[in-house]
Design brief:
heterodimer, A: 116 residues, mainly beta, Immunoglobulin-like, 11 strands, globular, B: 109 residues, 6-stranded mixed β-sheet, 5-stranded antiparallel β-sheet
Chain lengths: 116, 109
Amino acid sequence: DTAVSQTPKYLVTQMGNDKSIKCEQNLGHDTMYWYKQDSKKFLKIMFSYNNKELIINETVPNRFSPKSPDKAHLNLHINSLELGDSAVYFCASSRKGTAYLGNTIYFGEGSWLTVV
Amino acid sequence: SQQGEEDPQALSIQEGENATMNCSYKTSINNLQWYRQNSGRGLVHLILIRSNEREKHSGRLRVTLDTSKKSSSLLITASRAADTASYFCATDKIDQFYFGTGTSLTVIP
């Protein structure tokens, strides 16, 4: 069974459209994330949710809105898509761990978004 | 910035050689981790080293951590073609994980 699954895998859409990417984890984790990976492979955190509550919102345009209906799901909705939004978006999850014990983060396979 | 920066950006070696990649970071950390990303796939955890550890081994992987220099290195010994991937270091503070741009490793058979 896939631990972190996200859909769709590929998405090609026109500028100005609104699209959503869905993510689900079956690991029982409390924390979920969205990362954006650009063409240079730089992986930047966008959002972090712990038990349905937003705990990190990096400098992301408000066209990006995460929605967490329950702690196993974190969807990403993007309004008014722009060319610069083309990237790979990764969903991930982790346990809520202590600072000393550390944590590992589990990634989905990515969603390739191309805005034309 | 909390993010790690890997060096070199790209590395090409022959099968059987060792590969060393480095990571530098700017703020204090609790742990440092290394992840691997195969082309077209998500990142997969390789190894974690705690801030009070200096060296850690896992199979063909050896990780060092120098908190005074805010740097870490990942050594892959006896490399194989299947090790071809991008390698990222990640710094974490409780539930926040920050990655860099990675080192792209190519192992030539």
